[in-house]
Amino acid sequence: SQTIHQWPATLVQPVGSPLSLECTVEGTSNPNLYWYRQAAGRGLQLLFYSVGIGQISSEVPQNLSASRPQDRQFILSSKKLLLSDSGFYLCAWGGTGSYYFGPGTRLTVL
Amino acid sequence: AQSVTQLGSHVSVSEGALVLLRCNYSSSVPPYLFWYVQYPNQGLQLLLKYTSAATLVKGINDFEAEFKKSETSFHLTKPSAHMSDAAEYFCAVRRNTGNQFYFGTGTSLTVIP
């Protein structure tokens, strides 16, 4: 069966510091991968999605970026965090069927 | 553009009472529709999905949802609420072109003992 891993589970970072969140998928090949952010009271916002290695599409302009260096690895990054980047970050994979989500990373920017 | 609207950001029900969480979609063609549940500090778990087969869809934990094209609705129901049902529930639509999902803003369900 397919499994999604995300780390770290929680992260506290100062404003202006860099960020790297990692997501890996097991049990499937060539998955579509997605990064969502969940801010308090604001539902889920699609940030990036990828249909293959090196292929990244951005849904919203922001100071975040994503990369997919390997088939089952998806990384979310920032060079300088803002206070507004705080939230719960969820990685998901899916194809023509349902989405399956990882456990999430809780990011607090102070 | 496809989107979903969840009416009521907070719903409270008594234990044993009917659960009804509302979701309306906007789409020019019948979309794929989903309900997810999120427990605190966890990822989202698929409850059920509608993929243009039977209009009444049964999911896990006795939840079900009915696709009503005339009302553009996909409301989630459960006959009898349990304390363990307290969570955030999200309705989602999948775009007909591409595989991106778009989520509603969520409904927080509180179950009162």
In terms of topology, how is this protein built?
The complex is a heterodimer of chains A (110) and B (113).
Chain A: E1 3-7, E2 10-13, E3 19-26, E4 32-38, E5 44-52, E6 55-58, E7 64-70, E8 73-78, E9 87-94, E10 99-101, E11 105-109
Parallel strand pairs in A: 2-11
Antiparallel strand pairs in A: 1-3, 3-8, 4-5, 4-9, 5-6, 7-8, 9-10, 9-11
Chain B: E1 3-7, E2 10-14, E3 19-26, E4 32-38, E5 44-50, E6 56-58, E7 64-68, E8 73-78, E9 87-94, E10 101-103, E11 107-112
| Cα radius of gyration of chain A in angstroms | 13 Å
Count the DSSP helices of chain B: 0
Which structural category fits the helices and strands of chain A?
Answer: mainly beta
Number of DSSP E strands of chain A: 11
Chains forming the largest contact: A-B, 27 and 21 residues
Quote the average pLDDT of chain B: 90
How far apart lie the N and C ends of chain B?
41 Å
Spans of at least 5 consecutive residues with low confidence of chain B:
none
How does the helix and strand content of chain B classify structurally? mainly beta
Mean pLDDT of chain A: 90
Oligomeric assembly: heterodimer
Give the helix level of chain A as a range of percent.
under 10%
Output the helix-strand order of chain B.
EEEEEEEEEEE
Reported for the largest beta sheet of chain B, the result is: 6 strands, mixed
Describe the protein.
Chain A has 110 residues and is mostly beta strands. In chain A, 0% of the residues lie in helices and 60% in strands. In chain A, strands 2, 4, 5, 6, 9, 10 and 11 form a seven-stranded mixed beta sheet that branches. Chain A has a four-stranded antiparallel beta sheet with strand order 1-3-8-7, with no helix packed on it. In chain A, strand 4 and strand 5 form a beta hairpin. The mean pLDDT of chain A is 90. In chain B, 0% of the residues lie in helices and 56% in strands. Chain B is built from no helices and eleven strands. In chain B, the strands form two sheets. In chain B, strands 2, 4, 5, 9, 10 and 11 form a six-stranded mixed beta sheet that branches. A five-stranded antiparallel beta sheet of chain B has the order 1-3-8-7-6, with no helix packed on it. In chain B, a hairpin with a 4-residue loop joins strand 7 and strand 8. The radius of gyration of chain B is 13 Å and the shape is globular. The interface between A and B is medium-sized, with 27 and 21 residues.
